[in-house]
Specification:
The complex is a heterodimer.
Chain A: H1 3-30, H2 44-53, E1 59-61, H3 67-72, H4 77-84, H5 105-120, E2 126-131, H6 138-149, E3 154-160, E4 163-164, E5 167-168, H7 169-172, E6 188-193, H8 197-214, E7 218-223, H9 242-249, H10 253-263, H11 269-292, H12 298-302
Parallel strand pairs in A: 1-2, 2-3, 3-7, 6-7
Antiparallel strand pairs in A: 4-5
Helix pairs in contact in A: 1-2, 1-8, 1-10, 1-11, 2-8, 4-11, 5-6
Chain B: E1 2-4, H1 6-20, E2 24-28, H2 44-48, E3 53-55, H3 60-72, E4 76-80, H4 91-98, H5 101-104, E5 114-119, H6 134-138, E6 144-146, H7 151-163, E7 168-173, E8 182-184, E9 197-200, E10 205-209, H8 214-226, E11 231-235, E12 238-240, H9 244-254, E13 257-264, H10 269-281, E14 290-294, H11 305-308, H12 312-323
Helix pairs in contact in B: 1-7, 3-4, 9-10
The chains are: A alpha/beta, B alpha/beta.
The structure holds thiamine diphosphate.
């Protein structure tokens, strides 16, 4: 089996893992077991591509949409249940930056990290993900400006799912080809298909290498579909027509990849069923642990506000 | 014997931190070649290079956001905002990330950053250049807010802030940068960022102040001493957290307290201190705790500024009321 096919099969497992976890999380939210939850459905090919290609020691600055990559970088389902279930211990995983909720603010953190790599003369890079809506905010332009100015090793990855909650791209941005925004900063950029894992993983491998070897920022805009509501508190039917929703569902990257793997005899329906069962068992085990957990403690949590606790 | 201005001692402190710790990075507008608009960073870029002393693009939110990323990758940024009146674009980064990062990651990551900025009036400066909005930051759990009131304290406090590993808003009184030089024989690290300093002991009244208003407060203490009235003078130093041990012990003794600051009158650090004193020492006080702040008003352009800021007359009037208080 060629290397790339291997990647596709392991990538498929991660995509499926995230999709199944998302189903569980939505159901948990509906049962009041976790709070508001933002899904990744439809965008897994992009996020798994990142997970496959970003180096372990690189710095990843994610936002709330990034569940599949988080799973690949050390988050267990339990951590994500905590993350969306009101427990900060969900942010205690690995060495990456925690997910950013304030839109676009974390793009600057990634640029700061890239600056640190540059002056420490190490080979790591920073990779930051952001939505199309985030490209309206000053932080985005400020980070591009500074990264271009100092030739920072940073990859900007836009998950362009064409909606910021309900606001469509046409109302969001005077330039709807978002990758072109990098032009005025003299930063290389490309617009790519984010629905096909082969495409995302190959392009990410290539551009991650480019950023690393040339120490130059690059911006990639991946076109995706958000097949879920913005979060569990949202109802996409309020702003997406039935036609659009149906068209997007027809392009589900997970289904597309499963078909490819089936065609190449890498995964038959029986194997797929076993895989699903195995992944669901993992999720279920963490779910049981999450539900029965009583170790969260306010005094412990409070001890983390300052490095040195000030007087009472 | 050498005399130093506060701009010089802060410069020396930054110089020492850049020399002693390779992780130290300075970032801010005009801080490189120009040495900062108040010359606080004079010659540091020449000495430590453009990579470690960054003449940054003009974007305050960016300065804060980059500092966060640098800090979370192990650097120790000291960022300058040119004036407190221009820090506001960075509030999102400071409030939403800097103050919360350690807590929300349960100490996995943190933001040990010093945000330096000049503040306060008294310089006949253009609009927006004389703000005293320190209360905004003192309101934010997770931040430390420090302000020196002499050149010697500025040196030690900057170095102590650097050692603390907590994010610090370091407020430098603009009026004192080049005001009067202080004779300093040896520089030392004998300041504790958690403790207020008692500059003068006395038994008749406790006067609490910080930063630029310490100048007026010191003059008042001397003037009253001539009349046999001994005021205990506390330089607060840390506005968040507040050293209540020192304050309560003092007021326990004097039973009278006046708090002086240049910030607008309501919902500020002075109000907070007054609240805590009445809560802890209600039965003990001879007179109500009084604040002498600026009016609850935007700081007027400089021709009216002296009407707005507390001055020796205004402060003395309130002190006299408190001293003469009869139930
Ligand atoms: C600074 C800020 N403003 C508003 C919000 C509320 N909000 C959360 S997600 C969102 C839309 C973001 O859209 P986009 O960047 O396209 O990412 P997507 O959710 O589509 O992946 C908004 C407005 C926020 N989190 N942060």
């Amino acid at each position: 089996m060629p290397e790339s096919m291997n990647d596709l099969l392991s990538g498929y497992k991660w995509m499926l893992f995230s999709r199944l976890l998302e189903e569980k999380m939505v159901s948990m939210q509906r049962h009041g077991e976790i709070g508001t939850y933002p899904g990744s459905k439809g965008q897994e090919a992009l996020y798994v591509g990142i997970g496959l290609k970003l180096g372990q020691k690189d710095c990843y600055a994610p936002y709330y949409r990034d569940q599949p990559t988080l799973l690949m970088r050390g988050y267990r389902p339990l951590d994500l249940m905590r993350l969306w279930g009101g427990d900060e211990r969900g942010n205690q995983v690995g060495h990456d930056f925690p997910i950013s909720i304030p839109i676009a603010t974390h793009i600057l953190h990634a640029a700061g990290a890239a600056y640190a790599f540059k002056i420490k003369k190490t080979k790591e890079i920073a990779l930051v993900t952001l939505g199309d809506g985030a490209t309206s905010k000053g932080d985005f332009y400020e980070a591009l400006n500074f990264s271009g100015l100092y030739d920072l090793p940073i990859l900007f990855v836009i998950n362009n799912n064409r909606y910021a909650i309900s606001v469509p791209l046409e109302k969001q941005s005077s330039q709807i080809d978002l990758y072109k925004k990098a032009d005025s900063f003299d930063i290389e950029s490309h617009q790519l298909d984010g629905l096909c894992l082969k495409n995302t993983s190959e392009s990410l491998e290539h551009y991650i290498n480019q950023v690393r070897s040339r120490s130059r920022p690059i911006l990639l805009e991946y076109k995706t579909h958000r097949l879920c509501d913005h979060t569990t508190s949202d109802d996409a039917k309020r702003y997406k027509s039935k036609t659009i929703i149906e068209k997007e569902i027809a392009e589900d990257p997970l289904v597309k990849l499963r078909n490819t793997l089936r065609e190449h005899q890498l995964l038959n329906d029986h194997q797929n069923k076993l895989l699903k069962e195995e992944l669901n068992e993992t999720i279920q085990a963490d779910y049981v642990q999450f539900i029965n957990d009583s170790t969260l403690n306010y005094a412990d949590a409070k001890s983390h506000l300052y490095a040195e606790l000030p007087m009472k | 014997m050498t005399h130093y201005s506060m701009a010089q001692t802060i410069n020396l402190a930054l110089d020492s931190l850049l020399s002693e710790d390779q992780r130290t990075i300075l970032i801010g507008e005009d801080i490189g070649l120009n040495g900062g608009v108040f010359r606080v960073t004079s010659q540091l870029m020449e000495k430590f290079g453009e990579e470690r002393v960054i003449d940054s693009p003009l974007a305050e939110n960016m300065i804060a956001g980059l500092s966060i990323g640098m800090a979370m990758q192990g650097l120790k940024p000291i960022a300058e905002f040119q004036f407190l009146g221009f820090i506001y674009p960075a509030l999102e980064q400071i409030i939403s990330h800097v103050s919360k990062m350690r807590y929300r990651t349960l100490s996995r990551l943190s933001c040990p950053i010093i945000f330096r900025t000049p503040y306060g009036g008294g310089l006949n400066a253009p609009e927006h250049h004389s703000e005293s909005t320190e209360g905004l930051f003192a309101q934010i759990p997770g931040l430390r807010v420090l302000t020196p009131s002499t050149p010697a304290k500025a040196y030690s406090l900057m170095r102590a802030a650097f050692q603390s590993n907590d994010p610090v808003i370091f407020l430098e009184p603009t009026k004192l940068y080049h005001a009067s030089k202080q004779e300093i024989t040896t520089f030392n690290d004998n300041i504790n960022i958690n403790t207020a300093s008692i500059e003068n002991t006395g038994q008749h009244l406790t006067l609490i102040s910080w930063g630029p208003m310490m100048v007026e407060s010191r003059k008042i203490v001397s003037a009253y001493r001539e009349h046999g009235i001994h005021i205990e003078l506390i330089d607060l130093v840390s506005l968040q957290p507040i050293d209540y041990d020192t304050i309560i012990n003092s007021v326990l003794k004097t039973r009278r307290c006046v708090i002086v600051s240049e910030a607008a009158n309501t919902v500020g650090v002075a109000s907070e201190i007054a609240y805590t004193i009445q809560e802890k020492l209600f039965n003990h006080l001879i007179a109500p705790v009084k604040r002498v702040n600026a009016d609850h008003h935007v700081i007027p352009y400089y021709k009216l500024e002296s009407m707005y800021r507390p001055n020796i007359n205004k402060i003395s009037k309130v002190i006299n009321q408190v001293l003469a208080w009869k139930n």
